[in-house]
Amino acid sequence: MQITIRDDIESRYVGRITTGHISAYDASWVAVLRLLAGRTLEIDTKFLFRDQLNTEGLPADEVESLLATLPETVSDKCRERCHGALTKGIRAMYWMHTGVDGDVRPTRKLCRWCHHHSDKSAGACGNCGKTDHFETLS
Ligand SMILES: [Zn+2]
Questions:
Q1: Domain-wise residue ranges, the chain
Q2: Ligand 1 is a single-atom ion; what residues have CB below 5 A from it?
Q3: What residues does 40 pair with on adjacent strands?
Q4: pTM for the complete prediction?
Q5: d(CA 136, ligand 1 centre) in Å
C-alpha cells in the first residue's frame, strides 16, 4: 500500500494557509515536504484513517542522500526535523498525495456509487443511502 506525494505539495501547503486550514507557515515542515515531493512512500498499515495515513520511514541511505540535497543555508534544527520525518515517516493528509495505491482494508467498505468509505459491515451507505454498492477493500 503506497501513496505518492504530490509534486506541487509546497504550493498546496501555502494554499491551505491562505484558506485558514493551516494556522502558520512552518519552514521546517516545508523543507520536509520539498524533499518528499513526487516520492512514492509505503504506508504503515497499522492504523488506516479515512483522511490521513502514516507513512513508513525511508532507508538510512535514502535519508542521507535526500538530506544532502538541502541548501547550505538550512539550519541544523531544520535538518534534524527533516531527518526525523524521513526516518520515522510522516502523517500524510489526503490533500498531500495523489491517491492510495493498493488500498487494502478488510473492515472497510467503499461505496461504488458515491466513493464514500464506511466501516459498517452492511446496510446503507452513510453518504448516499444506497444499499447495494458497498465493496470491501481487500
Ligand atoms: Zn454511497
A1: 2-102, 104-138
A2: 111, 113-114, 116, 125, 127-128
A3: 4
A4: 0.76
A5: 13
